[in-house]
Structures are given as structure tokens and as C-alpha cells.
Design brief:
This protein is α/β, with parallel strands linked by helices. Helices cover 42% and strands 14% of the residues. The protein has helices spanning 7-24, 30-42, 47-70, 100-106, 130-139, 157-163, 178-187, 233-247, 264-270, 279-282, 287-298; strands at residues 87-90, 113-118, 144-149, 167-171, 191-196, 214-218, 252-256, 274-277. α5 (130-139) links the parallel β2 (113-118) and β3. The longest helix is centred in the N-terminal third of the chain and has 24 residues, at 47-70. The structure holds D-xylitol-5-phosphate and zinc ion. Zinc ion (ZN) is lined by residues 91, 114, 116, 147, 256, 276. A divalent metal cation binds at residues 114, 116, 147, 256. It holds the Pfam family Ribul_P_3_epim. It is an enzyme of class 5 (isomerase). Its cofactor is Co(2+); Mn(2+); Fe(2+); Zn(2+).
Length: 299
Amino acid sequence: MPCGATAPAENWRRAGRLLEQFSELRVRRKSTATRSILCFAALQVRPALCFVLALLAQKLCHLFVKCSRLDPVSHSSASPAPARAVKLAPSILSCDFSRLGEELQAIAGADWAHVDVMDGAFVPNISFGLPILAAARRASNLPMDVHLMIERPERYLRDFAEAGADSITVHVEATQHIHRAVQQIKELGKKAGVTLNPGTPLEAVRPLLADVDLVLVMSVNPGFGGQKFIPASTERVRTLRGWLDEVNPQAELQVDGGVTPANARLLAEAGATCLVAGSAVYGADGGAAGVQRLRDALA
Ligand code: DX5
Ligand code: ZN
């Protein structure tokens, strides 16, 4: 294009188009484009120079476009959440134990039954133990997902396996030999899970990630149902999802405590593949409706 009276207007148009390209592509360095445009404005008195600058800016733009395609971080805010099927594991801790069989039938549409065992030592509450697990096993076809909140769980792993557990999850804080406990669970032919309290650094489970079938993020301090979800848990789920994807992408990433239809989707988007819920399932109008509400929230 020859340099003349119309060159500044044309440069503005080109600059505008560049800016549009930048914003459409969500390139982070928009400020670079803005600076180029200000440059054009300042140099309008020298149209030939402006034209050269416009060409340079366009080249730069193409370079940024290339970079943004190569760099997944540039697209992160626009990417859809990975599509993972999310399992539901209602906790029978919140059910009516005088009707255990019916309460288990009510959650037949769930994926697992979550069984919270508390010893009054590792956590400040006693729930139930082997006979209830064995009864639940007889009353339901759902896989029994046993969460042991007990000191030195290695003492009872065989008993829980024989009573009907399909997966057994142990706390890193509850034993000196967490890796041995994981090995023992697998030797018993069961899925092995590890978990950690909200105040325990995630690094405590990192060495185990390649060897487990399940990682459970406690999103309340264990011991009681009906507590409020701890918001920082979502970021912990996201971090663990990243770590698991590197070494063991098939492992389940479970969240337990204060899960409701209001936060279920957020947790799934952060990378959870299994949500435990007690009061949100059994607390209102029965287990079947509670499971359905969570399914709807995740749809
Ligand atoms: C807490 C238990 C949870 C609890 C979940 O120590 O591990 O499984 O029952 O109950 P809600 O969903 O009511 O927080
Ligand atoms: Zn639990």
C-alpha cells in the first residue's frame, strides 16, 4: 500500500483487527498488542513507518497464535472439564440403622455403599464395625467401600475383607506403615485406598499414588456426618488429579465430607471420580431421592 493521506486510517483498521484476533484467541499478552497500536497512533505523522510497524505487529500476532496453540495453559480457562463418569457412594453412617436393609435398597441406584468405621480413638466418635458391614453385605449388591477411621488398621484388614469389603481405605495418619497396609489390602484381593485428613499435606500420599486403586480426599475432619465442606478441599482434589494423571490415571479420586448437590459438579470438574455423601443422600426425603439429586447436579 502506498504511503499517503489514507495510511493512518488503514493502520488503525489493521490495528483493530489485530486486537480482535488477540482477544478471540485469549492470548495473555494483549498488552503487547495495545502497545503496538499506541505506537501506530504516535507515528501517524510518518505513514511509511506505520505501515512497516503494522506488518511487524501482524507477524508478531501470528507468532503468538502459534504459541497459544502449543501452550495448553493459554487455553485453560476456555477448556471444557474432562468428561469423567462420577460414581456416587452414599455413606450409610447417615441412614436409619433400624431399617438398614431398606436404606440400602433405597440407594440401589448409586455405585458403591460407603461404610464409615470409627473407633473412638483415631476419631472422637464410635460408629460401628464388622457385624454391620456383614449385614450390609447381605442386604445389598452394591460394592462395599469401607473407610477405616481406626488406629493401626493393619490389625483388622483381613477381618474387614472377610466381612464383605470390596475396597478398604486407610488413613496415612493412622499407621506407621501405610505402604505395608496398602500391600496387605491388595494381597487380600481388595481395592486399596489411602486417605488423609484436611490438615495433612498432600505430599504424605504422593509416594503411594502409583500403588493404590483409590485416593480419598477428606473434605471435613473425620468423625461425624453432617459437617460443612472445607472449601480448600477443591484445590486439593485438583492437585491430586494432576499427580494421579501422571502416574496412575485409572485410580479413583474420591471426596468425602459435606458433599451436596451444590458442590458436586465443582468437585467433578476439579477431577473427582467418586463422591461420598451421607446427609445429602439420607437427610431429606430418603436415599433414592438423595441419589437422584446428586445425579441431576452432575448431569
Ligand atoms: C466423616 C465420614 C463421612 C461422612 C460423610 O468422618 O467419613 O463419610 O459420613 O457425611 P456427610 O456427607 O454428611 O458429610
Ligand atoms: Zn467416609
